[in-house]
Amino acid sequence: MTPRNKAAAGRRPKAADGASPKQAQLALYAEDASTQLTTNQGLQIPDNHNSLKAGVRGPTLLEDFILREKITHFDHERIPERAVHARGSAAHGYFQVYKSMSQFTCADFLQDPTVKTPVFVRFSTVAGSRGSADTVRDARGFAVKFYTREGNYDLVGNNIPVFFIQDAMKFPDLIHAVKPEPHHEMPQAASAHDTFWDFASLMPETTHMLMWAMSDRGIPRSLRMMEGFGVHTFRFVNSRGESHFVKFHWKPKLGVHGLAWDEAQKIAGKDPDFHRRDLWEAIEAGDFPEWELGVQMIPQDKEHAYGFDLLDPTKLIPEELVPVQKIGKLVLDRNPDNFFAETEQVAFHPGHVVPGIDFSNDPLLQGRLFSYTDTQISRLGGANFHELPINKAVCPFHNFQRDGMHRQTISRGQVAYEPNTLGNGTEYRVDGASGGFQSYPEDLSPPKVRRRSPSFDDHFTQARLFYNSQSAPEKEHIIAAFRFELSKLEVPAIRQRMVDNLAHVDEKLARRVAEPLGIGAPDAKAAAGRPGFRDHRMAVEVEESPALRMVDSGDGSVKTRKVAILVADGVDSASLKPIREAIEAAGAQCKVVGPRLGAVASASKRQIEVDVTFNNTPSVMFDAVLVPAGKDGVEAMLQMGDAVHFVHEAFKHCKAICVVGEGVQLLKGLGIDPESSPPVGVVMAPTPVTNMGDATAAQQIAQQFVGAIAKHRHWERPNVDAVAA
Ligand code: HDD
After folding, report:
1. How many CB atoms lie within 10 A of CB 184?
2. Where's the Catalase core domain (predicted)?
3. What pTM does this model have?
């Protein structure tokens, strides 16, 4: 064990030390490394380096059961990756309700504020393979398994509140279109290719989610800084059998933040595990990520009160129409012990519900109710995946399902059927009289039809609402993302169809997207004439919804933000100290970035320990940059391409930058005049202030810098496209 692992293992709760029921259960299956090696049958292995041979230079003998066992196991180590959401990262934690929700639902885990329900949460990208990069443009999965006292409840959502399609019948088509193209398996983890946009342009119902995916929601800064949504309308049912429709929201404590697209692409190469590492490290450091669970509730009799259909998964309920009530919190406080056993083998299913939570007739949800169990059977090798430790309920479970691949449970007795009189000596019959999960008795008198409801036919009003609700820079990001994706297409007709559709969202948006694409002007009429086009406009109930934009979200704290402090021999360490202290006191994390590992010598010959180098940890790994004063240090950095690039790139990505004294030289070439007021998000500290040890002035500078970091990104910074970085 490395010292770090040892420390982590020491900290982790064991079964006996008050851990959650789920941790106690998992501990029964856990094993620690041992110095003795045995076969799977427990036989001690005498030599783990050499196979059994006929003479030292002779052929290996078939008899070598030890070699065979080892190789055979290795040969079967891999299981199929998930058909979608293959790339994921997960953590354990707990959920706690703020006050009883008994008025709306009888779900046990939503009753008692003193109860902490164990959870396992897996975040994922959708399109990429298991080994693909974290920061690609995509929706993110946000799947929560609650191990409740009434059985497992899975809330299997995304970080976008609407979906591309309205009916599960189209799901395989959607996924086939977005996955790498079947003839050459390219591109990996990217929607910027012909088949995706071919499909999207022919299916205008995708338009609303496309707007979200092309926004900064598609490239989150961190898994800890994104919202989650149950997407579909579900039902809460209380103990009197009364139903409310409900939409679920997860609101991150740290706010909702995105990367710059150029940055996201660079990170995909520099650190493909960027989000996974960020989640892991935050939890190891004790910075436990937190979300609040929000609900929008609509009484059963108000089902038709809105212009959109609650059953249509391409629609959201604007928070201005139905406020989000925060009803509890989710905290992730423990990393998994084993990626495969937990993160890979966990099996989610929207059909894992508990009494008090039920489905709506959303046709996408209805299809999902079939798909998830089905996929686990091939992915996890049989029908007994519920017995895997990570999937096992913490409450007792029992039925007469029997046998199958990899069955673990040893079911005792003669009886495997119901009703029976032989099982436990008395007549045993399940008749629904004694509770259990009761489906909401919805009144249905349907003709059997294979048709889409006309109430699903408005494909543009909410796409427009989303676009209109964005700030000016966020609108620019959406335009740039559409341009990027569509410019990658080889077939101009697909680009044209797409911008024709966009003209129904916003004329100007469509024109701006089309400008650099070598196609004609957007033609709204042409779009309207194509098969599949629906624009039966619903009444506009909300023109603009501030809740849909990301800017200014969060509580203004800089907790866990990463700040680079650039150093080289000769920088002024005195000017660094007060600023570093203030940043760290505010909860941000500093790393000293230098030309080499080891230490550099400050102007006053103090040693400054270097954590990482300009080369191995570039600016895209940080949220902000601090450049100290010190003539010789700054001169040295100006000679280093990596150091200059570091600052220019951070500027281009609209990050907070603080330059002290001569450090301003590193902004040279960006057209910034040190004498005039600095660009937004750039804090300039004149040398005399900090060099002369004026503590109050240094404090002020530090506070300005912390304020700039808290804004996350200064997207309104002008002319960043002109920066060559
Ligand atoms: Fe799905 C996985 C979320 C529609 C079929 N889906 C999967 C995961 C998430 C979602 C988060 C990963 C779970 C994990 O971490 O293991 N899926 C959604 C959302 C949808 C959605 C929010 C729409 C609102 N999905 C959807 C449809 C179907 C599927 C319409 C099929 C009819 N989804 C699957 C699947 C997966 C899956 C193929 C792959 C691996 C798995 O289930 O366990 O069955």
Report:
1. 7
2. 38-426
3. 0.96
